[in-house]
UniProtKB/TrEMBL annotation:
Reactions catalysed, as given in the entry: beta-D-fructose 1,6-bisphosphate = D-glyceraldehyde 3-phosphate + dihydroxyacetone phosphate
Keywords tagged on the record: Glycolysis, Lyase, Metal-binding, Zinc
Any Gene Ontology biological process: glycolytic process
Gene3D superfamilies tied to this protein: Aldolase class I (3.20.20.70)
Record's protein name: Fructose-1,6-bisphosphate aldolase
Length: 328
């Protein structure tokens, strides 16, 4: 059944688990996510980005989500719009039937420049006013997402390219977060705690201190009733990188956010965990392997089925690790 983000995350907070929010662009991702949720009995958040809309078109994305609800009516599902860059975009998503929208006022409408705090508050607040009137939840964002290692915000996904920043500029300030939530009344808040979008998060293997856990704890202490959201939460599994490169890929060495650290973040108040890159890597690895092992095959259903199996295994692992399994 369709539920709002607030409904779903209130349950997650009450029972102390986190929910992976997977990006969807096509049928194969949607099937993989839903089959994984069905097998593990997990609640679902599926999210559509601007890139997804450009690729599939808003009506196809909407109907993919509606098809998921129709085939799996027993699972609670949030239709979420990822990284809305203006109130107009959020309004359109609500009109399409989305039960949750992200107003990302931390960046300008073209997604390129960090905005002022006042701009962020006023755009986010506008969205909350009309979204709440429709029973739709709102996620806001405060802080600049980027790698603490390089001081660079992720560029590869087109979400942000803001140049070099120091650590203090890159972590969400707990006091500012408290004011932001009071001023906007958002249901969920995306915070900058050391993650960045895309596959190239860290150039060194993790040391166990990838996330600013203490910062998460401080923000949660100030905002116990606001659900914290972690963007850029892909773990960039080394086994998928290896498989891609074994079958002709050329992905340089890179590391993501270890699942164990995300689980720790969930202990301190993170409830929504955004994952896109890991499913892209799994799909690519599976398809490269299928092409390598069976070059005579030309029925796309055969190799795309391999990608569904690969993505499903990643989704199952995340539902289980975050404690969402069995909560639907
Ligand atoms: O936040 C970024 C997501 O990974 C979506 O990326 O705009 O390429 O679909 P995209
Ligand atoms: P990843 O690139 O780490 O998968 O993050 C996705 C995301 O935050 C979508 O909003
Ligand atoms: Zn994001």
């Amino acid at each position: 059944a369709l539920v709002s983000l607030r409904q779903l995350l209130d349950h997650a907070a009450e029972h102390g688990y986190g929910v992976p929010a997977f990006n969807v662009n096509n049928l194969e991702q949607m099937r993989a996510i839903m089959e994984a949720a069905d097998r593990t009995g997990s609640p679902v958040i599926v999210q559509a980005s601007a890139g997804a809309r450009a690729y599939a078109g808003a009506p196809f994305l909407r109907h993919l989500m509606l098809a998921a609800l129709e085939e799996f009516p027993h699972l609670p599902l949030v239709m979420h719009q990822d990284h809305g860059t203006s109130p107009a975009i959020c309004q359109r998503a609500i009109q399409l039937g989305f039960s949750s929208v992200m107003m990302d006022g931390s960046l300008s409408e073209d997604g390129k420049t960090p905005t002022s705090y006042d701009y962020n508050v006023s755009t986010t607040r506008q969205v909350v006013a009309f979204a709440h009137a429709c029973g739709v939840s709102v996620e806001g964002e405060l802080g600049v997402l980027g790698s603490l290692e390089t001081g660079m915000a992720g560029e590869e996904d087109g979400v942000g390219a803001v140049g070099k920043l120091d650590h203090s500029q890159m972590l969400t300030d707990p006091e500012e977060a408290a004011h932001f939530v009071e001023a906007t009344e958002v249901d969920a808040l995306a915070i900058a705690i050391g993650t960045s979008h895309g596959a190239y998060k860290f150039s060194q293997p993790p040391t166990g201190e990838t996330l600013a856990i203490e910062r998460i704890r401080q923000i949660h202490a100030r905002l116990p009733n606001t659900h914290l959201v972690m963007h850029g939460s892909s773990s960039v599994p080394q086994e998928w990188l290896k498989l891609i490169n074994e079958y002709g890929g050329e992905i340089p060495e890179t590391w993501g956010v270890p699942v164990a650290e995300i689980v720790e973040g969930i202990r301190y108040g993170v409830r929504k965990v955004n994952i896109d890159t890991d499913l892209r890597l799994a799909a690519t690895g599976a398809i490269r392997r299928a092409f390598g092992q069976n070059p005579a095959e030309f029925d796309p259903r055969k190799y795309l089925k391999q990608s569904v199996d690969a993505m499903r295994s990643v989704c199952i692992a995340r539902f289980e690790a975050f404690g969402a399994a069995g909560q639907a």
